[in-house]
């Protein structure tokens, strides 16, 4: 049950909810029927938590909102973030007094952030708006109050074509390995602008998870995801896709982007590429650099490549500096895996014995 809570908690971050002082900013609901002044304020406040230099622009946009209820809604989040202090109960109650759906949701999230789950649940449990229903399900699941009921709500909302519920369920079931069910929900969510939907579909088509493997459809969905916004792992997957399509120029470009974005698996792929396609000593140096980055970021099998590579360099040059470096990698491995360290040490011993013979 704990794993379910962990997975679903992760995936409730997928629909662009921004956390402002511990309270999720979910934005304006039903954007198709909203005026331009409200949409502008919504866009700026959603960016504000990442860039406080937008402060004056945000406040100006909020003040330009003609609808009192929406203006108060935006002001609530602006004041929480801008003051960077606890909002007084009196001020919070004043700002939370209106009853548009997103303000009811904000009120519930506010009390949840204060640890008052009973009050948070009471505010939201009878609401019927499709977004508030999904957040109610989230509260039930992530706070371990009634997980079965939470999933039942999400599935019921999915049947009513609630795209947000489909996004969450699709990502959740894909993550736990039920790809057939995951794909079913993801395909129901393709009308959304949520990049994670297209990322997961692209990955599942690439690996043939719940689908027949199809590289063209994998490319279609991964590129669509990139157009909508970055998802962690996307650059690495694009690099891996183009590598399989034999487009090495694009593969390297995306793996480099992945490495610059902290996608550590890309380090290993870049090391492997430069080693397998080396044309100069410079390429070997790059391979070593990327394998070291991979190893230092938890990809332990990169140490095996490093040891073997340095043994090969020793066999070519008889330069002991390469053996010394190989031994240093063995010591690092031995710190967390004595058996693996012993096996790597044996490789070096065999290499030295062979040279002597």
How would you describe this structure in keywords?
357 residues, mainly alpha, two-stranded antiparallel ribbon, 20 helices, 2 strands, elongated, disordered N terminus
> Radius of gyration, rounded?
26 Å
Helix content: over 70%
How does the overall form come out from the CA principal axes? elongated
Largest sheet properties: 2 strands, antiparallel
Spatial order of the strands forming the largest sheet: 1-2
| Strand portion | under 5%
By DSSP (H or I, 4+ residues per run), the number of helices equals 20
Provide the residue-averaged pLDDT.
83
Walkthrough of the structure:
The protein has about 350 residues and is mostly helical. Helix content is about 70%, strand content about 0%. It has helices at about 1-10, 35-50, 55-65, 70-85, 90-95, 100-115, 115-125, 130-140, 145-160, 165-175, 180-190, 195-205, 215-230, 235-245, 250-260, 265-275, 280-295, 300-315, 320-335, 340-355; strands at about 20, 25. It has a two-stranded antiparallel sheet with strand order 1-2. Helix 13 (about 215-230) runs antiparallel to helix 14 (about 235-245). The longest helix has 19 residues, at about 340-355. The model is unreliable at about 1-20 (pLDDT under 50).
Q: In brief, what are we looking at here?
A:
With 357 residues, this protein is mainly α. The protein contains 20 helices and 2 strands. The chain has a domain at 2-160.
SSE map:
Layout lengths: L1 H10 L6 E3 L2 E3 L10 H13 L6 H9 L4 H16 L5 H7 L5 H13 L3 H8 L5 H13 L4 H13 L3 H13 L3 H10 L6 H13 L7 H14 L5 H11 L3 H13 L4 H12 L4 H16 L4 H17 L2 H15 L3 H19 L1
Antiparallel strand pairs: 1-2
